[in-house]
């Protein structure tokens, strides 16, 4: 597996496995199948309510801890955010059955995320999180956090797929030492992605599926990516993207699919902000 090196020297697999919307009781089976297919990086979150099942699969696999890369995420915490964050990370570690995570992310820029970040810096120094980062941070929020704190986030995990490519934002992050990570690489199938003409034709030229073309495009752009699937055949397909290369012309054709629009939600939408704020975890 190809790795990226994060800004503190930690190595992270460029391709991992996401478990959003995988129900608790199916998660253990899915993560076990993903590990058997060769994935070593697993992306979960307190808000997914499947950390326990993911942890059980990690344990059952017998794979050495150092070979795994485990990401989990902090859900919105209000003041006293430093105490709440420490408590939330301890709860996540207990559910996962781990002494440390490889990457701990602030899931959403809501609540007292400055306090959250200070606690995450402490957790990093204490060895409970080898790297710390953020998710769903807009450029101004990310820069503000960087300017006013000690540790620069190692990662920003954001909606990134062929219709919303974040090319300029990736450049900006790179300049600050922040690794871009894609969530929703297939836009969860929205906007006809799996039957898109451009992606289908490129796939045919390489004997690969649309999903594989999308993931290969991410890898060539040095975007960390964590596709989700509960189907073992698709899991195997999604990790099998290291034996072909897209040409510059093909990369350009995919660039042409960018519209910039979210396929999910608009953070400027007051209803969305209210929805997020209403969902607190203890
Ligand atoms: P994805 O874009 O990864 O799409 C998943 C969907 O694509 C599922 O319906 C899956 O179906 C289908 N699929 C997967 N592989 C294939 C394939 N080869 N061919 C056809 N269909 C396929 O969506 P996610 O939202 O799950 O994003 C990935 C991960 O990113 C999440 O699991 C989570 O870890 C993270 N994430 C983080 C967010 C954040 O706010 N930080 C928000 C959203 C996601 P099936 O399972 O049946 O194969």
List the helices and strands and how they pair.
Layout (H helix, E strand, L loop, with lengths): L2 E3 L5 E3 L3 E2 L5 H14 L3 E3 L7 H11 L7 E6 L6 H16 L4 E6 L6 H13 L3 E7 L3 H9 L7 E5 L7 H10 L2 E5 L13 H10 L3 H11 L3 E2 L6 H8 L8 H8 L14 H9 L4
Parallel strand pairs: 3-4, 4-5, 5-6, 6-7, 7-8, 8-9, 9-10
Antiparallel strand pairs: 1-2
Helix pairs in contact: 1-2, 1-9, 2-3, 3-4, 7-8
This protein binds NADPH dihydro-nicotinamide-adenine-dinucleotide phosphate (NDP).
The Rg value, from CA coordinates, equals 18 Å
Which structural category do the helix and sheet elements fall into? alpha/beta
Low-confidence stretches: none
What small molecules accompany the polymer chains? NADPH dihydro-nicotinamide-adenine-dinucleotide phosphate
Helicity, in percent? 40-55%
Q: How much β-strand is present in the residues? A: 5-15%
Task: Quote the average pLDDT.
Answer: 94
Number of strands: 10
**Shape by Cα distribution:** globular
Largest sheet properties: 8 strands, parallel
How far is the first residue's CA from the last residue's CA? 36 Å
Order of strands in the sheet with the most strands? Answer: 3-4-5-6-7-8-9-10
List the helices and strands in order.
Answer: EEEHEHEHEHEHEHEHHEHHH
Count of DSSP helices? 11
Describe this structure in words.
- The chain has 282 residues and is α/β, with parallel strands linked by helices.
- It has eleven helices and ten strands.
- It has helices at residues 24-37, 51-61, 81-96, 113-125, 139-147, 167-176, 197-206, 210-220, 232-239, 248-255, 270-278, and strands spanning 3-5, 11-13, 17-18, 41-43, 69-74, 101-106, 129-135, 155-159, 179-183, 224-225.
- α1 crosses α9 (232-239) and α3 packs across α4.
- The chain starts with a strand and ends with a helix.
- The model has no long low-confidence stretch (mean pLDDT 94).
- Residues 18-20, 43, 107, 135-136, 157, 183-189, 194, 209, 211, 226-231, 234, 237-238 line the site of NADPH dihydro-nicotinamide-adenine-dinucleotide phosphate.
């Amino acid at each position: 597996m190809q790795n990226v090196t994060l800004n503190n020297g930690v190595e992270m697999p460029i391709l991992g496995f996401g478990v959003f919307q995988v129900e608790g009781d199916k998660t253990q089976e899915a993560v076990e199948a993903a590990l058997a297919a060769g994935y070593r990086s697993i992306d979960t979150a307190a808000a997914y309510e499947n950390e326990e099942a993911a942890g059980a699969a990690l344990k059952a696999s017998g794979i050495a801890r150092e070979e795994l890369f485990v990401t989990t995420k902090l859900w919105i915490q209000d003041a006293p955010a430093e105490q709440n964050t420490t408590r939330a990370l301890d709860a996540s570690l207990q559910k996962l059955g781990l002494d440390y995570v490889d990457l701990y992310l602030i899931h959403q820029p809501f609540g007292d995320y400055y306090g959250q970040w200070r606690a995450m810096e402490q957790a990093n120094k204490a060895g409970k999180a080898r790297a710390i980062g953020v998710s769903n941070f807009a450029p101004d929020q990310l820069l503000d956090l960087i300017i006013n704190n000690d540790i620069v986030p190692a990662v920003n995990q954001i909606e990134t797929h062929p219709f919303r490519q974040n090319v300029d934002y990736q450049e900006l992050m790179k300049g600050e030492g922040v690794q871009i990570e894609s969530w929703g690489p297939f836009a969860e199938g929205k906007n006809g992605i799996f039957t898109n003409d451009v992606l289908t034709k490129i796939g045919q030229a390489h004997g690969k599926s649309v999903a594989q073309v999308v993931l290969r495009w991410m890898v060539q752009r040095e975007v960390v990516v964590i596709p989700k699937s509960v189907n073992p055949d698709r899991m195997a397909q999604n990790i099998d993207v290291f034996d072909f290369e897209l040409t510059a012309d093909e990369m350009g054709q995919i660039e042409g699919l960018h519209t910039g629009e979210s396929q999910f939600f608009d953070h400027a939408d007051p209803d969305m902000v209210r929805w997020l704020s209403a969902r607190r975890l203890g």
